[in-house]
Amino acid sequence: LKRSVGSVYEDAFDFEAMSDILGSSFVNGAVPDKRRRRIRAALSALKSQKFFEVDGGGAHNFVFDRPTRALEAFYERLPEMVDLIKAMTIARLEIEGRYKEETHDAFFRRFDERFVEPDDLGRFPSYLVCLRNGADAKTEKAMLTEVLSSGLPMKVLVQSDDILEDASIMSARFSLGVRGAQLAAMAVGLNNAFVLQSSGSALYRMRDSILGGLKNGQPALFSIFSGLAGASPGPVRNTPETPPYLRAAAALESRAFPAFVFDPARGDDWASRFSIDENPQAGSEWPVHHFCYEDDNLQKISEDIAFTFVDFAAVDGRFGENFADVPRSEWQGAMVPVDTFLKLDAKAAAEKVPYILMIDENNTLHKVIVDVTLLEAAHRCRKMWRNLQELGGVDNSHARNLLAKEKGLWEQEKEKERNLEALRSHSVPVPATSAPEQTAPVPVDTEQDDEPAPAPSGEPYIETPRCTTCDECTQINNRMFAYDDNKQAFIADPDAGTFRQLVEAAESCQVAIIHPGKPKNPDEPNLDEIMARAEAFN
């Protein structure tokens, strides 16, 4: 053939490769019976499979209402899956001309479920288990643990319509709790399953994470609060006038059902795997919003209010008996917002009355006090959220302790440097002479003249040289706090704001250099509580 082609097209053909192909071909295109049977068996397995619908043929169902049924279906279909994987592999080898009978025949005779790899499972549809209202998940909890730790392509959707539960003496719980969130937390502890928790209001924002969990060949749990209000015991429905989207958003905002994603495929450390970024103001204990209203004299009043678990429960008709409206004439200084009350120790809390703000149908503002049942539930919710923050790297206690330790070491080094500098600046050099003379000792002034004079007792002040220009204080009140020419903060006018703002600025200061002193207005609301908070910074 090479001689007949001639030298003109000699470089266009690889005659050695062509010789190998033609040498191994069969006379008259005949295929050996053994190979024909092998190809027909592979084609038969491909045509009869039920994992993918082809030409309108029936296919397996992959949606289940119990994890036990999903597992049973998976193991029942496993031999069929193994045969299909074998057929697809043989077909690929035959198409590519790489099937070697002396090697592959023995391999495929032994081929069973032990040879199935995660990549093989990834070619097949995942099994979806749909549970609803938390009760299903509770009864199937043990089996859910088995499913999520199995490594199989099982996707579990738990839809919670009502995350508040009544007090139950039988379960030794004398206050309200939150269902659904504990299930996702348990799944995170397995450490090998994809876990996503979210309310229905955040699903669109979290769509990329949801798609990632669905495409992942590993087990996955999606715990979703729908916001659908169920019927409560008695004639009162929970929240019939509240749209499910708003109810779901309130659960997310109040930390009753926080959002998070745990994806083991993202890395080996928690910083890569775990995220709480989709929560409102994820760095705060509770989301805080600026609220403006008019008082009886039509004067504008503005304040920052936190949206807590108690606010979420307040819109549920079942818990109306846990609240009491306080007439305006009986408002008093001992009444404090719920978020403030939750921070107090037992002794301080005994002297305070927690309340939330509510508005009636006439847009009239009310202060509504809260009973201990809801407060205990809010305490648990607050602790649960704090644990999630720790996992998400927000104000992590280990990092905070390490930072405090390093800061202490740094301050010790700076103190040594200051002492050495003081000794150098105040020392008197002794002139060199040919012979020593008896001289009276020269006293050394060890006082540091360059130390800033302390502020008058009770006056607020800032350690300006240590300011890091974080803008926290100026954002609170830019008339009370200002920057000097070095872009470092000082108190421009202590009378331009309230003592509360001074304390809040001190609490938000990243380097703790703001000292609020003592209040100038003895009639400022909630003064006892604010002064207690100020003690840590004076």
Keywords:
four-stranded mixed sheet, 538 residues, Alpha-Beta Plaits
The gross shape turns out to be elongated
- The first-to-last residue Cα distance is 100 Å
Radius of gyration: 36 Å
By helix and strand content, what is the structural category? alpha/beta
- Strand order, main sheet: write it out: 1-2-3-7-6-8-9
Largest beta sheet, briefly? 7 strands, mixed
Q: What is the tally of beta strands?
A: 19
Helix content: 25-40%
Beta-strand proportion = 5-15%
Low-confidence stretches: 166-177, 231-236, 432-436, 439-454
Q: Would you mind describing this structure in some detail?
A:
- By secondary structure, this protein is an alpha/beta fold.
- Among the domains are: 2-121, no CATH class; 288-391, no CATH class; 455-538, Alpha-Beta Plaits.
- The protein has helices spanning 2-5, 15-24, 33-48, 67-95, 101-110, 118-121, 135-139, 141-148, 181-190, 207-215, 244-253, 270-273, 309-314, 338-341, 346-349, 372-391, 397-426, 472-476, 499-508, 527-534; strands at residues 63-64, 127-132, 154-160, 164-165, 177-178, 194-199, 220-225, 260-262, 274-275, 288-294, 300-306, 323-326, 335-337, 353-359, 365-370, 461-462, 481-483, 489-491, 514-515.
- The protein is elongated, with a radius of gyration of 36 Å.
- Residues 166-177, 231-236, 432-436 and 439-454 have low confidence and may be disordered.
